[in-house]
């Protein structure tokens, strides 16, 4: 189902049925949805496509419907509002997120489903990426620095593994637990980092899979203006979330959750003494 959508349409959700689980992927990226053909070619066939109309001024919504998508309208401008609207509209048990410029292997969704099926306690999953528009050693180094800085830098700020919006998935139940906590009304935050803060604060279990790889466009390296904008949004995201709970207290809460509980066994009546 290849389709290219003009600017103005902000998101697409793709669903895949796998046994008792339904995987839905949110493609939240401004511009043409260049990964539509790759999603259509997944080894797990798409169940549903939901596109978020975030103030479209052309015929993008018409094109999306023609491609078989269900269009959801979100009047508040910005990726955080559009991403949240797409996740709210999704009807599956798993919600899979990527960006419009994400290029994923054919078994991407199948691999995600398998990870969640194998680990019932897993709430969210994420993986790394490389830049398909920056070949060679320089592109490899930039990708390693960018994804590594996000994983470890944001991880220290969140006190948990952060989900990366270009390549992540979470259970619908986990989204329902944090959907009212995300700052969807703010257009000046990184929605994936903000979501990571809320999942971690709720005690949700997030894992990084180094084999769950995708390719994306290295937009942050296209211009200094883009890097400054991304940096400011990162700072704002940290500020609004640290105002709710400081980094130190976040790590203390994580340590408390990780501490094993004493086991006192059972009494003569057979009741647990824990």
Q: Can you characterise this structure?
A:
The chain has 274 residues and is of the alpha/beta class. The chain has one domain (9-258): Spore Coat Polysaccharide Biosynthesis Protein SpsA, Chain A. It contains nine helices and ten strands. Strands 4-3-1-2-5-8-6-9 form an eight-stranded mixed beta sheet, sandwiched between helices. Strands 7-10 form a two-stranded parallel ribbon. It is globular, with a radius of gyration of 19 Å.
Name its key features.
Spore Coat Polysaccharide Biosynthesis Protein SpsA, Chain A; disordered C terminus; two-stranded parallel sheet; alpha/beta; 9 helices; disordered N terminus; single chain; 8-stranded mixed beta sheet; 274 residues
Strand order of the largest sheet: 4-3-1-2-5-8-6-9
Strand content: 15-25%
- How many strands, what sense, and barrel or not for the largest sheet? 8 strands, mixed
> Structural class of the secondary elements?
alpha/beta
Low-confidence stretches: 1-32, 270-274
| Number of helices, where a helix is a run of at least 4 consecutive DSSP H or I residues | 9
Q: How would the global form be characterised?
A: globular
Tell me what the CATH architecture is.
Alpha-Beta Complex
Between the first and last Cα atoms, what is the distance in angstroms?
A: 54 Å
Q: What CATH first level would be assigned?
A: Alpha Beta
Rg (CA only): 19 Å
């Amino acid at each position: 189902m290849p389709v290219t959508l003009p600017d103005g349409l902000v998101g697409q959700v793709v669903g895949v049925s796998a046994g008792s689980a339904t995987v839905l992927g949110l493609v939240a990226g401004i511009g043409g949805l260049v990964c539509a053909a790759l999603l259509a070619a997944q080894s797990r066939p798409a169940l549903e496509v939901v596109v978020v109309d975030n103030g479209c001024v052309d015929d993008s919504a018409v094109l999306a419907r023609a491609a078989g998508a269900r269009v959801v309208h979100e009047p508040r401008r910005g990726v955080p509002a559009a991403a949240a609207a797409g996740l709210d509209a999704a009807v599956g048990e798993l919600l899979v997120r990527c960006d419009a410029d994400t290029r994923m292997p054919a078994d991407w969704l199948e691999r995600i489903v398998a990870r969640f099926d194998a680990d019932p306690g897993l709430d969210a999953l994420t993986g790394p990426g490389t830049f398909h528009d920056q070949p060679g050693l320089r592109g490899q180094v930039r990708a390693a620095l960018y994804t590594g800085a996000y994983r470890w830098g944001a991880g220290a700020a969140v006190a948990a593994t952060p989900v990366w919006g270009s390549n992540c998935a979470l259970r619908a139940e986990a989204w329902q637990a944090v959907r009212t906590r995300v700052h969807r009304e703010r257009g000046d935050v990184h929605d994936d980092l903000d979501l990571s803060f809320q999942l971690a604060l709720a005690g949700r279990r997030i894992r990084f899979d180094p084999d769950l790889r995708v390719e994306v466009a290295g937009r942050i390296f296209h211009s200094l203006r883009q890097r400054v904008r991304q940096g400011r949004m990162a700072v704002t995201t940290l500020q609004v979330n640290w105002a709710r709970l400081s980094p130190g207290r976040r790590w203390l809460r994580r340590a408390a959750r990780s501490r094993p509980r004493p086991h006192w066994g059972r009494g003569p009546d057979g009741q647990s003494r824990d």
